[in-house]
Description:
Layout lengths: L2 H9 L6 H8 L6 H17 L3 E9 L1 E2 L22 E2 L2 H13 L4 E5 L6 H14 L5 E5 L5 H9 L4 E3 L14 H13 L3 E3 L2 E4 L5 H13 L4 E6 L16 H14 L6 E5 L3 H5 L4 E7 L17 H10 L3 E2 L19
Parallel strand pairs: 1-4, 1-11, 1-12, 4-5, 5-6, 6-7, 8-9, 9-10
Antiparallel strand pairs: 2-3
Helix pairs in contact: 1-3, 2-8, 3-9, 4-5, 6-7
Bound molecules: iron/sulfur cluster.
Amino acid sequence: MKVTEIIKKSLDGGELSVEEIAALFCVPLFSDESGLVLAASRRKSEAASEGSAEIHGQVGMNIAPCPKNCKFCAFAAVNGVFQDKKELPLEEVIQRAKNFERDGANAVFLMATGDYPFAKFAERSREVRRALQPDTIMIANVGDFSYDEAKTLKEAGYAGVYHAVRLGEGKDTSIPVERRMETIRHAKEVGLRVGTCLEPVGTEHSIQELVEKTVITREIRPAYSGAARRIPLPGTSLAAHGIVSEARMAHILAVVRLALGYDTPANCTHEPNVAGAAAGANLFWAESGSNPRDTHEETDAQRGMTTKICRVYFEEAEWNTLSGPSRFYREHSYTQNKIG
Ligand code: SF4
């Protein structure tokens, strides 16, 4: 099938086959056809989200040498970036969450490392929930959890979670793919909406793996998918592969957008950039505290961006940014208008 026909099928609401997704990933950058892919992705993003982009703010609560050893992560014990366990005092977590709320973030994420005690995460979450406005959307970004723990997250006041089957899962991490999928199932079973992503994309990943993981994100029927690149951490084994350019990431996130249906309103990319937003990314993250892609304990004023910078990037890419609580994490808040 020609690229133009694949694009039309996607815009008409058809589900692309693995061969069709692979064909889109194979389109050369800066070719006429690549331009069509980027334009179609942008149009589909605007239709699926009714023209609104969102900025979510994440508070990284702790740093630790994490035994899960995901090789792309600054917290992986094997990478030796952080030797000691440290965490923000609860009052500081609350203050930073409130700062995101004040600055107009559409949702507030709390993130902890994969080895962080679940009960403590839940307890802190309840305190943060009490301190925020009742309509502020809270999202958990934590390690794998059981069905009962999913219920606890829901009861603590979360609307959803971020969770992904990462590229290289089970090979560059010690976590089996099935464990990640199980956690996603638990979240959905208790009514937590799931956001996910094709990440962390490296230069060495094959088209086959990009397609395979894109299809996994589609099968989740998530609030959003998208694509994010891996940040090389100096001195780590994966750093030798370098970094995927923002131009290539724009093409990759555009293909992911076209591979997912209109029932997924959003398409994320990280870190925030104008090229990605122009190509159809409509969800960015601002960050405070710890960050798995940063070698500084505090990502503020380092790799982490503010809500203000994210908003400027969206403006530069001609997106309107939503005011008020996130719609991406609320089911049935879109009419799912199709284009094409
Ligand atoms: S990605 Fe999560 S589970 Fe993996 S090493 Fe980092 S903190 Fe641990």
